[in-house]
Structure formats: structure tokens, C-alpha cells
Write a structure and sequence with these properties.
The chain is α/β, with parallel strands linked by helices. The chain has 16 helices and 16 strands. α8 packs antiparallel against α9. This is Aryl-phospho-beta-d-glucosidase.
Length: 496
């Protein structure tokens, strides 16, 4: 099945992971600058342990975006999902625009557009400005005013470049690991902080929708443009027959709780019950639910990496039964388990299983009736970069078996408008630093110019795009020939 010509083949990336130039162009610190400086940690080489490294330079997209866009054009992309940096645009407070930041993104988006690559901006991805965090960040209701000022400015000056936008990326990971835990900044370990942050994030999306519609009326955004929310739901699989109810409860929290507020304007009843149990009934204030209900978003972005095996939280694992320790949550009734037998894992202990992408897409489409886009799908690995050829067959296979499920979903009536893999080039990973490779293009982080080199998976995606989504082959001789003769033989200074 050949896909429609307007299907979006994209790659996704994120400012604090790729951009660098953290103190250039009038920019100040975000919570990620503070976190990586305070928690800097380099584990032993080759260990799949978390590296927290400097993001001061990263892949230096700030200075190399023209080179990168040449590579993207050569790859054949017709879209780039880019999580832009709030702090680069409002570096001091919510009122003073940093015009150097606006100019940077204007230059990037204009260059993408000139090369027939649609910019697909995401407005917020975990990187609250420090000036806002010092005042309480997303726990402070004033964040609604600050965010309104930010999005209105972005839509006014950059809205002309795209008809597809997203408000947030992975609210679940940000709030669960940053407010209920300390794995991510702002590392609050607070149930109250979590409740206020997730509710304010949802209200910010509704406010963004109001400003989006205003920008359409002002002529700054295409009247047909869509504004969506991007979520990282891992569809649940009951570990045993008797875990079916626990799995339903998991999906209620991890699908509906994070999507319903911005797609239906409601919360599942379990959240109201939890707020009451925790004595947090003042989190949702009069008028909040009407604001959500009247300003639902238009589009679902979905980050699919793997499914989640779910068991009742009182299940006792047998010795040697699990690959890694189970994960419990802030609510009772279920836990996530990681079976060792008959389950594939990456070198970073992430499950490899595309089979829940199709039923998950059918659930999302059937329940919300909103267009879908895969915004993130990719393989984090230790790539062998010792030679001239980076033969990441494992990544090409991973992407191929997952894209095949996207095609099945389209054939069965799911309105997928695009697929964007994670990620274009190697970048800083919050879970693995610079040792966890995700890119189609390698970055030499030890090089003063951060040299770019295509991997085998780059050729795989190039062929997939040029075939209109038909060529899913990932292990043939022609792919290697394409890397040797088609790419590396002409990969000169302009692409490095």
C-alpha cells in the first residue's frame, strides 16, 4: 500500500537535547541547565547506566542547523518535529521578548520551508525557564499567564510557518518523574506538586488553543491549522489472565487521565477520587473544567516505543522471572513488570514489540476521533562507531517492524497523517546522556565541529520515503551499497 502524497515523513528532536548554545543569543538557564550542572554524572564506559552530561554544546544545532537541514533534504524528509525552547524566547520573565531567540527560530523555520520540509513545532518539552521555576513553575497558577504570553508571541511571529502544532510533549513522563519523583527536573517528590503541575499543564493547553484561534483570526496562522497534544502512552498487556482488570486500570490512568482533559475536556473519575483522598480538592478551581471543555485540541501525537506488561500490584515475581525490577506507581492496583522469557529487549532494557501499535492506534482513533501522528518511535542503543561504517541493522529493523504497523492501521481506517521517528541525529538523552544513540545520523561529540556521519538506518529511511512507504526491507545488500556508494562517497564538508 503506497501512502498518500501528503503523508508526513518526519524526524523529531528537542531543543535542550540538540541545540547547545545555552548561554548564547540572550538565553538564560532552564531547569534542564540547572539539573545537568547539579547532577553531572559519567558512569563507566559501556555500562547501560544513566549518564547526566553537559548540554552546553550537545550536537550544536544552534550553529549547524543549515548543515542539518541540507542532510534532512537529502534524506527526503518533508517534516521536522521540533520542540522549541521557551527560555530562548522569554529569557528573563514573561514580558520581555528575547528577539535573538525569535530570529533564531525564524531562520530555522524559514530554511526548513525553503527546503520543502514542514516545521512541526512543539511548544513545551519539560524545560521550564528557571525564572519561572524560581517562582513555583507549574505548581504556581501564574504559569497560565506566563504560558499565554509565550504561546501568543510564538504564534504571532512564527505561526506562518506551519499548519501542524503541538502544545506539550509527554506530560506524563515530565510530571511522574519530575514531580512525583526526582529522576527528572524539577525533582519535587510531591503528590501536591504533581497534582497542581498536571492540571496547570492541561489548562495551559486550553489557553494555547484560545491563542491559536486568535492567531488564525489575525491571519498569523492558517485557518485550517491543527493544534494537538503529544503523549507517550505504552499500551497495557495483561501479564496473566487474572491481570485484565489491573491492565484496564493502568490504561485508564496512563491513556485517559493524560488525554481526556485536552481532547474531551474531562478527567476520569479516578482522578477526582484521588484528589479527595489526598486532600487536594482545591487544585481544580471554578471555571477550570469549562475552560478545558470549551478548548479541546484537534490532534493526537503519539510516542510509541513499547507496550507495558501489567500485573496486579500484589503479584510476587519468582526469582529469575523478570528482566529488571517491576515498577510501581502512585496509585494502587497495578504495576508494570518486565518478563524475561519470550520478550525482546534493547541493550537499555526497553521492550521491543510493535504488536500493540495497531490496537493502540485503533483505541485512540475509536475513542477520540482525532487525527493521529506518530511523533516519536525509535531505538536507543550502543552503536558501534569504531569504523567508517555504522551498521545499525538493529535500528533499521526496529523502525521497519513498527512502520509496518502504522501502515496496517491506515489500511484499517485509522487517520494517521504522519510518522516521525526519534531522532534525526544523535543527541543528549535524558536517560542515557551521549552514550545512548538514537539517530539516523551519528554525531562525533569529541569533534570540535560535531561531525555528522550517516548510518545504515539513514539509508533505510531514505528508501522508505522515496518508495512512498512501500520499501520496508531492512537487511538487504542494496542498503549497504546505498550507504557506501550513494551516501558516504559524496558526503563532503557540506554535510559534515
Amino acid at each position: 500500500m503506497k501512502l498518500e502524497k501528503d503523508f508526513i515523513f518526519a524526524a523529531s528532536t528537542n531543543a535542550f537535547q540538540i541545540e547547545g548554545a545555552r548561554n548564547l543569543g540572550g538565553r538564560t538557564d532552564s531547569i534542564w541547565d540547572e539539573f545537568t550542572k547539579r547532577c553531572f554524572h559519567i558512569p563507566p564506559i559501556g555500562k547501560n547506566e544513566r549518564e547526566i552530561n553537559s548540554i552546553a554544546v550537545s550536537a550544536d544545532f544552534y550553529h549547524k542547523y543549515q548543515t542539518d537541514i541540507r542532510i534532512m533534504k537529502r534524506l527526503g524528509l518533508n517534516g521536522l518535529v521540533y520542540n522549541i525552547d521557551w527560555t530562548r524566547i522569554f529569557s528573563k520573565n514573561s514580558q520581555e521578548i528575547n528577539w535573538e531567540g525569535i530570529k533564531f527560530y525564524d531562520d530555522v523555520f524559514a530554511t526548513l520551508q525553503a527546503n520543502n520540509i514542514k516545521p512541526i513545532p512543539i511548544l513545551f518539552h519539560w524545560d521550564t525557564p528557571m525564572w519561572a521555576e524560581i517562582q513555583g513553575g507549574f505548581e504556581n497558577r501564574k504559569i497560565l499567564e506566563w504560558f499565554q504570553s509565550y504561546v501568543a508571541t510564538v504564534f504571532k511571529y512564527l505561526g506562518k510557518y506551519s499548519d501542524i502544532w503541538f502544545v506539550n510533549d509527554e506530560n506524563s513522563t515530565f510530571t511522574l518523574d519530575g514531580y512525583l519523583g526526582d529522576y527528572l527536573p524539577p525533582a519535587k517528590n510531591s503528590k501536591e506538586g504533581f497534582a497542581r503541575a498536571i492540571h496547570h499543564l492541561n489548562l495551559c493547553a486550553a489557553i494555547a488553543k484560545i491563542e491559536f484561534e486568535k492567531a488564525k483570526l489575525a491571519g498569523d496562522i492558517n485557518p485550517a491549522a491543527l493544534l494537538g497534544i503529544d503523549h507517550d502512552w505504552s499500551p497495557g498487556i495483561p501479564y496473566r489472565i487474572e491481570d485484565a482488570k489491573a491492565c484496564q486500570e493502568y490504561n485508564l490512568w496512563f491513556k485517559n487521565f493524560f488525554l481526556d482533559p485536552n481532547l474531551k475536556g474531562t478527567y476520569p473519575a479516578v482522578f477526582d477520587d484521588w484528589l479527595e483522598t489526598e486532600g487536594l480538592t482545591d487544585v481544580i478551581q471554578p471555571g477550570d473544567m469549562a475552560l478545558l471543555k470549551n478548548n479541546c485540541l484537534d490532534l493526537i501525537g503519539w510516542n510509541y516505543y513499547r507496550p507495558a506488561y501489567i500485573a496486579c500490584d500484589d503479584y510476587q515475581e519468582k526469582p529469575g522471572e523478570m528482566q529488571i525490577a517491576s515498577r510501581t506507581f502512585f496509585v494502587k492496583g497495578f504495576k508494570q513488570v518486565f518478563p524475561k522469557n519470550n520478550v525482546r529487549y534493547t541493550s537499555w532494557n526497553w521492550i521491543i514489540d510493535p504488536t500493540m501499535l495497531l490496537p493502540g492506534a485503533q483505541q485512540l482513533w475509536g475513542e477520540y476521533q482525532k487525527p493521529l501522528m506518530i511523533v516519536e518511535n525509535g531505538l536507543g542503543a550502543f552503536d558501534d562507531k569504531r569504523g567508517d561504517l555504522i551498521l545499525d541493522y538493529n535500528r533499521a529493523e526496529y523502525l521497519s517492524i513498527h512502520f509496518a504497523e502504522v501502515k496496517k492501521a491506515i489500511a484499517q481506517g485509522v487517520n494517521f497523517i504522519g510518522y516521525s521517528l526519534w531522532t534525526y541525529c544523535d543527541i543528549f538523552s535524558p536517560s542515557g546522556g551521549y552514550r545512548k544513540d538514537y539517530g539516523l545520523v551519528a554525531v562525533d561529540f569529541n569533534s570540535p565541529i560535531k561531525t555528522r556521519t550517516p548510518k545504515l538506518s539513514y539509508v533505510w529511511y531514505q528508501r522508505l520515503i522515496s518508495s512512498g512507504g512501500e520499501n520496508l526491507t531492512h537487511d538487504d545488500h542494496d542498503m549497504l551499497e546505498g550507504l557506501l556508494k550513494g551516501e558516504l562517497s559524496t558526503w563532503d564538508f557540506w554535510y559534515q
